[in-house]
Design a protein that fits this description.
251 residues; alpha/beta; FAD/NAD(P)-binding domain; six-stranded mixed β-sheet; three-stranded parallel β-sheet; 22% helix; globular; binds flavin-adenine dinucleotide
């Protein structure tokens, strides 16, 4: 008689609270729960290899600064003065991305969150437990299932790149989402890249434009008319860049 197929045995762990995302929101939520109930069984999961989300080491790109006034991005439990080496500021008084990233990581150690964080761990699916009450989080590339009473999704709004609906096959040059601007610096820095078209006009696009123009590239910006923030475009043109290198078109 043929043997029955054997289902792979899932490894199941149970928690009071699972948080998906170790960015600012995920870690602040974890801290809030632990402050109220220190005995809670909690885990924070993140796909990346470091904490911080937008500000994680892997996501820092050239020219990234914290655009919020410095004191609004400082935690009560761990001041900027406690950061080692000290936080750095750009010429306009904003904290640089790499230094705030380091500060955030040190804050997470200082407030005792490190032991609750599992990095390089992606949640591929979430379903209701068969008891109809709890949640089950499936971990990508493994048999692991985390069952939890409470679930917080703190996966941010910019972790998954969204590309405009364009036919990139027709274009022979490098195409990249802003999310990979830092990883692919060598591509856009190439001598043969003379002109770059940027889609969008948010913070990431503005940062990219500044770096591209500084690198001597001619930049064309496409943005949606109804989402224009005129001050943003003006700021990019002057005083950093000068009008000659940028053309702006609506789509
Ligand atoms: C380029 C850029 C610059 C910004 N600059 C500023 C600024 O100067 N000032 C300001 O106030 N705000 C700024 N923001 C807004 C920024 O989104 C917030 O400041 C804040 O960092 C968002 O935190 P978050 O925890 O909600 O999300 P995120 O920081 O995006 O963190 C979400 C985390 O969830 C993880 N994740 C997602 N899906 C999964 C999954 N399935 N499994 C496991 N992990 C997962 C991601 O890896 C990520 O680490 C900026 C945003 C961007 C994109």
């Amino acid at each position: 008689m043929d043997a029955l197929p054997v289902e792979p045995c899932a490894e199941e762990e149970t928690f009071d609270l699972v948080i998906v995302g170790a960015g600012i929101n995920g870690l602040l939520a974890a801290k809030a729960f632990l402050d109220i109930q220190p005995s809670i069984k909690i885990v924070v999961l993140d796909s990346l290899g470091s904490v911080g989300g937008v500000w994680a080491k892997e996501r820092i790109y050239p020219g990234l600064n914290v655009q919020t006034t410095a004191q609004f991005f400082e935690f009560a439990e761990f001041g900027y003065k406690d950061c080692e080496p000290p936080v750095e500021y750009n010429g306009a008084g904003f904290i640089t991305g790499p230094s705030w990233s380091r500060y955030f990581e040190q804050w997470s150690h200082k407030v005792g969150l490190t032991k609750y964080i599992r990095l390089n761990t992606t949640v591929s699916q979430v379903t209701r437990h068969k008891d109809g009450l709890r949640w089950q989080c499936y971990i990508a590339g493994s048999q692991e299932i985390l069952t939890t009473d409470k679930l917080i999704i703190a996966n941010g709004i910019s972790s998954l790149p969204k590309y405009p609906d364009l036919d990139f096959q027709k274009f022979t040059g490098p195409v990249m989402h802003h999310r990979y601007f830092g990883d692919r610096e060598a591509d856009w820095m190439k001598e043969e890249v003379k002109e770059v078209t940027v889609y969008g006009a948010g913070k990431g696009c503005m940062d990219d434009m500044v770096q591209l123009v500084k690198a001597g590239k001619k930049v064309k910006v496409h943005k949606m008319q109804k989402f224009i923030e005129p001050g943003l475009a003006r700021r990019a043109r002057k005083p950093f860049l000068g009008p000659a290198l940028i053309t702006i078109e609506a789509f």
